[in-house]
Records
---
Amino acid sequence: MSTTGMRRAAVGLTALAVAAFGAVATSPEQADARPKPVDVTLLALNDFHGNLEPPSGSSGTIAGQAAGGVEYLATHLAELRAAAKKKNTITVAAGDLIGASPLLSAAFHDEPTIEALSMAGLDYASVGNHEFDEGAAELLRIQNGGCHPVDGCADGTPYRGAGFKYLSANAFKTATGKPLLAPYAIHKVQGVKVGFIGMTLEGTPQIVSQQGVAGLTFADEADTANRYARELRRKGVETIVVLLHEGGAQASTGGINDCVGMTGPIVDIANRMDPSIDVVVSGHTHQAYNCDINGKLVTSASSFGRLVTDIDLKIDRRSGDVVSAAANNVVVTRDVAKDPKQTALINHYKTVLGPVAGRQVGVTSQAITRSQETLFGTSLGESPLGNLIADAQLAATDDEEGAVAALMNPGGVRADLDAGPVTYEEAFTVQPFANNLVTLDLTGAQLYCVLEQQFVTNRTLYPSSTVGYVVDPNGTTGTVADPCAGTRVVRGSLTLGGTAVDTAATYRVTVNNFLAGGGDGFSALTGGTNQVTGQIDLDAFVAYLTAQSPVSAPTLDRIRTTAEVPAA
C-alpha cells in the first residue's frame, strides 16, 4: 500500500480507537513499545547489456566519473549490503541484462553475464526486450540452464542457469494465455512480505525481430501491474515493487538523482498504476533519474552497470505497508578493489575466446561516434558512425546484388569507435546483433514513404553516401496507419547517386533483416520485393574497415533542411 493510503488508514484507526476507548497511548514509554518498522534495502540496476568489462569512451563515464565493469560493480554491491543489514537487502534489475552485448559475453550466448550477476548476488530481474533477441526458448534456457542447442557448452563447462529469478508478468504464450515466466515473486524480510512484479514494455514486438517474439503476446504495463498487485494483496502483500523495462528521460539539466521535466512512457504508466504499488524500478531508456510520480518512487540506474540505485524502505511490521521510501543513485566508481571472483570469471572466458578478439581489423584516423546531430532541435539527424555503417553495407551489396543505397537503424549502432587501431572485439561491440543484410526492391514512392515513416517513429535511418534528400520542418507528419501521407521530405529532393528518384521506378536498397521485417516501426519496408539475404552485418563492417583504412568520419551532409537548401 502507498504511504498516502497507509496514512489515511492510520487516521481512521486512530479515530476509531478514540471513539471506542476514549484515549490513545501517547506517552514516550507507550510510543517506544510500538514495534519499529523493518528496514529493507533494494539495490537496483538495469540495462547491463553484458558489459563485464568497463565500457569504453563516453559509455564508460557518468556524472563526470569513470564507471562500470562487473569487477567493480560486485564490490560496490557488497559494500552497499554491508552498509545496510545484509539479511535485509534484496538485489533487483529491470531488464536488458543480456543482448546487444560485447563480444566477451555475446560469444557465449551471454552465459558469462548471467554467471557474473548471479555471483554478484542478484535476486530478481524483469525481462527486457533484449532478453528476447534469441527467442523464448533461449530465454528459458538462460533461466533454467543447459547447453546451447547449436553451439553446445562453448567454454567446455556446463551452464547451470541463472542464480536469480527472471519475472515476466506481461509476456504471455499466445496459444495458452499463460505467462512465459513467473509474473511475480514474494520475498520475506523479518516477517514482512515484499512483492516484486516483473515486466517489459508492451511494444517489445516492434523493436525485436519477429522470430524473437514468435508465439508471444505482450500486454499493457499498467493494467498488468494492477492485476498482479491485486493478486499480491490477496496473499497478504502490502509492499509492492514493479521491475519494469520501460522508462523515460528528464531534461538535460537534471543530475543522476534528479527528476527535471520528466517525460516518456513511464510517466503515463506510473500515473495509471494502482496506489498499492510503492516503487517502480525502470529501465530501457538508459537514463538516470530519481522521481516521485503519482506518489510512487520511480528510479532508473542509466546503463552498463555504471550506477546502482540504493533504495531504502521502511515497512510497518504489523500492516506490511511502506512507511517511507527513498533512493540514491550511486556511481560504480573504479577506485575500489576488484572482486577477485569476477576477475577470475572474466579471465576464464578471455582465455577460451582466444586471440580472435584482439585481431586488428582496421584503423580510424579520428574518433567516430554514434551521436546524432541536431535536427529541428531534436537528436534526429545523421550520425558519423551510422553513416559509416550504411556505407559499409552498400559496399557489401552494390556489386553482388546491385544495391544503389543502404539504410541503417540507429538502435543497431551500440558503441563508438576510438581513434587508432580497431580490433575485432571493438567492431563487434558496435554491431553485436549478427543481423543479415537484405537487399530488396522498392519503388521511388515506397522510398519516400520509408523516409516519411522516420518522423512517425522518431527514428532516423542513417543513409549511405549515395542518398541525399531535403526535410521541411514545416511539413506534416504522417500517421502510424498512413505514414505516406506525411510531407516532411520535400518531393523531388530525394536523389540516389546524384540523380532524382522517379516515384514509378524501382531501386535496389540494402537494410538489415530486422528492418526488412518492419522493425523499429518501419512497416513500409515490408513492402519490398525480390529480397535476397546476404552476409552478416558485422562481417560487412569489418571488411569495410579493413579495405578503407585509415577510416575517417563521414561528412554529415546527406540529410539537409529547407533552411540549407531553399526551395527552387
---
Amino acid sequence: MPVAPSDPGSPRTRTRSWWGWGYADAHPDDAECAALGALLPGTLARPLPVPRIADLAIARPAVTPPPSLAHLVTADPEARAAHAMGKAYRDVIRALHGRPGRIPDLVARPTGDQDVADLLDWAGAHGVAVIPFGGGSSVVGGVEYRGDTHRAVLSLDLTSMDRVLEIDTVGRAARIQAGALGPVLEGRLRPYGLTLRHFPQSFEFSTLGGWLATRAGGHYATVRTHIDDFVQSLRVITPAGAGTSWRLPASGAGPSPDRLFLGSEGALGVITEAWMRLQERPRHKASASVAFGDFHRALDAVRAIAQTDLAPANCRLLDPGEALLSGASRDGSTVLVLGFESATGPVRDRLADALDIARAHGGRTEPPTPDRDTAADAPADPAVSAWRSAFLRMPYLRDGLARMGAVVETFETAATWDRIPALIDAVRTEVAAAALKATGHPATVNCRLTHVYPDGAAPYFTVAVAGRPGAEVRIWDDIKAAANDVLHRHRATITHHHAVGRDHRPAYDRQRPDPFALALRAAKAALDPHHILNPGVLLD
C-alpha cells in the first residue's frame, strides 16, 4: 500500500555537531573533558577549544551550477563544512586543529531520482567529483574527497529523499527512499507494527542508503547481522543510467545485481531506494549478564552458544577492560551480555538454555530479567543496563578525550573461531607496543565481541593512549598500520561492518582476489566513465 508523506517520523529539532559525533548539546563540557583526561596520564592540562566554522578557510566554490539545478544546490559555508568529512577519530582531531581537509565546493539535496540523474550528468560534463552523503557517520574516510584531480567537489546529500513509499503488509516489506534516517524510517513503520530491526550504533545519524552502500552491521549479534540480509531489491542511479532489480524473495538467476552495489560506497552508483524485508515488532524480551574469571573460557562459552540454534539477539562479550569502561564489572571479570527477543512467544527458556551453557564454561550468573512485554517497565540486569548506556555514550566520550589530546579510536574485524584467540592476543600485544613506540605512553587496548556466528566472531577493539599535540593523526595512522598487519597475518578481514572507505584501502587491496579487483575496475569504468563517483573509495 502507498504511504502518505505525512506519516510520523522523528522530528529534527536538535543540532548535529559539524565536527564530532551526534548532537552538539550532548558533547562533554570542558569540566567533563578534563575529568576524562585525568584518567589517561599524559594528556593535556585543559581541553582544546570546540572548533568553529567561522575559523575555517573556506574558499569560494570553483564551479557554479546551472540555473536548472540551482534550487538543489547550496554553497553555504556551514553546510559545506558539515559535509567535509565523517566522524572517525582522525576527522575529529583534524577539525579540532582547524584542518578538516578538502571542503566540498557545493552541497546538493536532491528530492527524487531525476534530480540525482541531472546532478550526475552535470558533474560528469564538468569534472566535478560527487561524494554521496547520507548521515555522514562514516568512520573510515568514506564521505570526504582526497586529492586534487577534480575541478570541484559536490557533496550529494540524500536526506531529503526520506519517504517510506509503499508497505506490503502481506509480504512484510517496504519500499523506502535511501535518505531516510534510522528514526524516521522506524517512525513510519511503527504504526503498522513492523520494524526493519537494523540498529547500528549510528542509528540516529545514518541512513538506509548509507547502510546499504557500506554493508552495515546492526546491533543484533546473530542470524541477520548485516543490512544485506534484509534487501529484496535496489534502485540505483549511475552516470551510465538507472536500474532496478526485481523484487523477489530469492533468486538463483546468475550473480546478484544487488550484490554489485551493496558495499560499493557510492563508487559505482547512487542507491536511491530499496525494497526491504520487515519483521513484526518484538513483544517479548529477556536479558542477563554472565561474569567469567577467564577470558578464553568465556570465548569458549560464546562459541558454544553461537553453535546452537538459540539465536540470541545480543551475545556481546566484554573483556575486563571493556567491562570496566562500560561499568558492567569492576572486579576484573569478563562479562557476557545476553539478550533474547521475539514477536511471537516467550523467550525465557532460550535464555535459560544459554545461561546453562555459560555456567558449564565457568560463568557466574545473576537472576535474569523476567520475560516481559516491551511496554512493561521491568527491572533490568545492572550490567546489561550499564553496557547499554555506555554503548550509546561512548562516541561522545571519545570526542571529549580527543579534545584532551588523547588518541582514542576503534577498529573491528572478523575471523574464524580457530583464529580468534590468537588474533585477539596478538592485537592486544602488538597494537599496545605500537602505541607505546609512537607516543612514549602506555596504551589501553580493550576488546569486545559484537557479533558471533557458528563459524567465527567479530572482535571490536578500542585503543586509548595519550598523544602529542599536532601529531595525533600520524600517531593513529602508525597504530592502525600495526593493527592492519596483525589482521592480515591472521587472515582476519579489514572490516566486519564499517566499510572500506579510504582509510582501509591499503588493507582491502591486499585482501581482495586479483581477478575480482579486475572485474571491479571494469564495472567502475562502465558505470562511471568520467570517474566522478566517490573517487578513491574501493579503487583508484
